[in-house]
């Protein structure tokens, strides 16, 4: 989006240092900054102000900085707090998009499946609209949400924003910036449950999304999840449900499971039916597709056109991707993150795959309110599915932990073996994928 330093300065109550300048979008990482963008110096694990010179050399048009941190030969806007100012900048750009996006601003949250659902919604809406824009990767927090809005094209006609939750009030705060008109809640699981006192706390925090919707908006709820279904009473907006259960407005049913785990699915709505196959494996991808179809219907696309976008979703690294492994094995790379619901979904994908032997190399799931119970449950699910767990650097699964250096010897992989690799981000499970793929 086209932004000027003077407009931003007024919107964030900042002080403009230097001449006015015009940028197209912005970045908070100088390594990815493009010459036409503005730079936002965030103080986090690393201080973004240390990279202002690099941003200037890479062609930044202007920078948002803390007071007293401006540098020579770069127009700067000085503020007290760049994260707070970035939110105000996002609100300014959201207001500029009002006319072009109309009622097509989609907020997505849930304990699992946010990014996959975001990609499914984008694929569906691209079947009906010319200029759909969605958050990149998992930009879903106080930095990522405003960055997404600021980087939307000026002629954006549908905007999709992923919203993460690490505590009460966070999603409400993100909604004040994004002002979604359609809200999707995928599920309530144990991710970050330690921070909010368990599953009921997660439900309360996730529900902030639909509480923030306008009366003429639409809440799209997963009726297969009782805690999500119960949220219908928490919004003044219209409610549309999706799920495999009878009574769901958009109902999905798996017709066939292909050899790679993808599911051919029938989708029903208002007496009509259509079939499609989501791009990624697993029945949970059919649920994500149903959520996306509900979004399409809410924007006026209809069932047939909405379903035509299913199967065109973008695949992202570390999210249920089959990769070639050593010794002719196949590696199911689902390393991006993990909680109980996403772990169970991945185990079912592995269980349905054709394989000589199935292994799950699992790292710890962090930030759970009941970690021992959750990990033991995963171990029981794996056992019931005939999957052998190899735990790396944790004893929580009830099996002797293995070190990274001993993984290959422990598995002894052969041709046609299948291995799921999954764990929370802090477990750094991508190290295992690198080892098992030889990449």
TrEMBL record:
Residues 318-392 form the Mur ligase C-terminal domain. GO terms for biological process: cell division; cell wall organization; peptidoglycan biosynthetic process; regulation of cell shape. The keyword Aminoacyl-tRNA synthetase does not apply. Gene3D superfamilies: Mur ligase, C-terminal domain (3.90.190.20), Mur-like, catalytic domain (3.40.1190.10), MurE/MurF, N-terminal domain (3.40.1390.10). Keywords: ATP-binding, Cell cycle, Cell division, Cell shape, Cell wall biogenesis/degradation, Cytoplasm, Ligase, Nucleotide-binding, Peptidoglycan synthesis. GO terms for molecular function: ATP binding; UDP-N-acetylmuramoyl-tripeptide-D-alanyl-D-alanine ligase activity. Pfam families: Mur_ligase_C, Mur_ligase_M. InterPro entries: Mur-like_cat_sf, Mur_ligase_C, Mur_ligase_C_dom_sf, Mur_ligase_cen, MurCDEF_CellWall_CoF430Synth, MurE/MurF_N, UDP-N-AcMur_synth. Residues 108-295 form the Mur ligase central domain. HAMAP family: MurF. This is UDP-MurNAc-pentapeptide synthetase. The lineage of its organism: unclassified sequences, metagenomes, ecological metagenomes.
